[in-house]
Known about the structure:
By secondary structure, this protein is an alpha/beta fold. It has helices spanning 17-29, 43-47, 66-73, 86-93, 112-119, 151-161, 175-183, 185-202, 207-228, 232-239, 245-255, 258-277; strands spanning 10-13, 36-40, 55-59, 76-79, 102-105, 124-129, 139-145, 165-169. One of its GO terms (cellular component) is cytoplasm.
Amino acid sequence: MPETNALPPIAILGAGSMGGAIARGLSRSGLAKSGVTTTNRSAVKAAELDGLDAVTSVALERSPSGNTDAAAAADVVLVGVKPAMVPDLLREIAPVVRPGTIVVSLAAGVTIATFEQILGDGVAVLRSMPNTPALVGRGVTGLAAGSHAGAADTDVVKRLFETVGTVVDVSEAQIDPLSTISGSGPAYFFLLVEEFTKAAIGKGFDEAEARLMAEQTFIGAAALLEASGDDPAELRRRVTSPKGTTERAIAVLQEARLDEVFAAATDAALARARELAEGA
């Protein structure tokens, strides 16, 4: 008797870093009972996914019809090729995609309307915005449903992305703003770790010691935040003794107006996302 949680047959067309991460998450989850077919242009890239449980990895240089074969057999098709390649791929698979199929975009800047226009009314389209921690099963994925996607379609896709982390339901208008937070957010975090490491080196620690202290402090703080369930402001207050050293350091950071810096940074990212969507 099939598991109620089991996912239908899935195709991931263009299984690069993100598509590959999703394939690995599906394989680990045990929910891909009906199988996952991934495609990549080169045999070298396809080989990276060989051997994953429930995953069939196809190299287009060996099987030129791999995209259409995979799309024809799948109930859920993830499109992970580069944004400029999306329209051509959609035109390639449109004749074989069966009515009722769910097609999910992994491509930044490509609108749901583009997918629906090429694929037609019988296909449910959703647009996703996963982030790189999906590579370790701790991603955040924004998910926006198109005009033909019902609640059941969205539920299937949510369960798919939950194999690599957390899912946030948003409108398509919120996808670009979300990308400036969860999409770009890992880079902001890594920058903070870089700068904290430099500060430690400046205090006389060697690079290995500085990296260890900086990285593990951030990793440990994140784990404490998750485990406690407390508001980050409350956790900060607990570390910040009145008239102590941390209070003095926090005052310097607050005087630097980090709130304005982060607002400006995310605004800049959003402006660029809209330029990219317009082809600039």
